[in-house]
Amino acid sequence: MFTAADLAKQLSGEVIGDGCVKINGFAPASSAREGDLTFAENEKFFATADQSAASVILVDGDFKSANKVLIRVKNARIAFAKVLPLFFPEPKFAPGIHPTAVVDASAEIDGTAHIGPHCVIGEKVKIGARTVLQGGNHIEAESILGQETRLFPNVTVYFGSRIGNRVRIHAGSVIGSDGFGYVFDSGFHRKIPQIGSVVIQDDVEIGANVAIDRGALGPTTIGKGTKIDNMVQIAHNVTIGEHCVIISQTGIAGSTKLGDYVTVAGQVGIAGHLKIGDRATIAAQSGIMNDVGEGEKVWGSPAQPDRQMKRQLISIQRLPDLLKRVAELEKS
User: Fold this and answer.
1) Which one, 60, 157, 174, 210, has the greatest CB density within 10 A?
2) Is 142 domain-assigned?
3) Both 66 and 214 in a single domain?
């Protein structure tokens, strides 16, 4: 249990009202009860929160309430992200190796790590301090997992992968599977051995059922702080920069390079051997067939600059009227 003053101090915020009010939980305004904290980042949300049963509202604007205690912060959404773990802490995993786990004698596992049931740890694997393998995880030989990394159930890590510190990989994802490399030879597709690796840097989060292929020769690399949503395919030798956001059902073909702070929306397809500049934004369902410059916003299939695509769509919407006018002119 916290008081409004306790939370304000942790969030570097200001209490408007009684700082001694006790807070038992956090809830959206629609379901909040007395003793709950809720948050509002605009006037519409604040009006709803002010009429709710919540006792305290987290705000970032010049809001006033006759009924509620307010905690005013610089950014309500950032404060929301910081305060949620206080009320909903993640489960703790005791150090140790479950009896059903199969661990090669040459593996190096820190004594503070947790290896859950039915995990398989291969030769010369290294697992850092406080890392958690929840269960059913297969870590192939010579892979390295850093400190405080968490693998949710049934994540598979192929041979020689390198995973940094504080990485989270959700259930069903596969790291380091073979890249899709073939050459047509005498009427059949001859497989090109994929002998590269995958490197995932610190503070990356990877959603459920993501496939990241190993490089054909060098590594496939995911940069520090990048967040990858569910069901994303990243092909061999792709390089993704730092702090990118890749939304669900995106596919990135081989050897393409994304800069830092790139945003790729859902269901985007990016062809191979392209360069996507720093801070570029690609809208949902776009097809990327050419390089995208630094800071550019593109969408459509094939993707085009944002303003150009908007003009084309407006023109298409006017076509029925234009065709009608042309028909009338032809008739006259």
Assistant:
1) 157
2) yes
3) no
